[in-house]
Amino acid sequence: MSIQFKRTPDGKIKYRGELFAGFNKPKKAPAGDPKKYVVLAKDGSKVAKVKFGQRGYEDYLQHGDAKRRANFKSRMNCSASKDKTTPKWWVCHHNW
Q1: In angstroms, rounded to a whole number, what is the distance separating the alpha carbons of residues 8 and 20?
Q2: Tag placement on the chain: N or C end, fewer CB within 10 Å?
Q3: What's the whole-number average pLDDT of the chain?
Q4: Can you tell me the distance from the alpha carbon of 39 to that of 60, in angstroms, rounded to the nearest whole number?
Q5: CA-to-CA separations, 36 to 5, 48, 60, 67, in angstroms, rounded
Q6: Contact indicator for 23, 5 with CB cutoff of 8 Å
Q7: CA–CA separation, 4 vs 47, rounded Å?
Q8: What's the pLDDT score for residue 3?
């Protein structure tokens, strides 16, 4: 399988027609997308475009409540999440 991303002269990455600041750097999803964020995730040699976070709901980045954060991480079993190419990893490590 061939690599589907290219570096632009300004250092950004173009992946399937979409520009990203770099690998593992989340950005806001475009308007109309049901998800809040999108990231070009790289874990070893695996590269995937990952959408995560439900638009319209608060996460730790908005409310900052440590108790809600602990409950979420416990409920989602975030400590078992190891693969950066999954939405669960990004929700656990970026949003919460």
Answers
A1: 10
A2: N
A3: 93
A4: 18
A5: 23, 17, 13, 22
A6: no
A7: 9
A8: 67
Identity of the amino acid at 37: Y
Bridge partners of residue 23, in order along the sequence: none
Phi, psi of 26 (to 5 degrees): -65, 150
Q: Residue with structure tokens 């593992």?
A: 24
Spatial separation of the C-alpha atoms in residues 73 and 44, rounded to whole Å: 25
Higher pLDDT, 61 or 77: 77
Amino acid symbol at 93:
H
One-letter amino acid at 72 equals F
- Measured distance CA(92)–CA(87) in Å, rounded: 9
pLDDT exceeds cutoff 80 at 44? yes
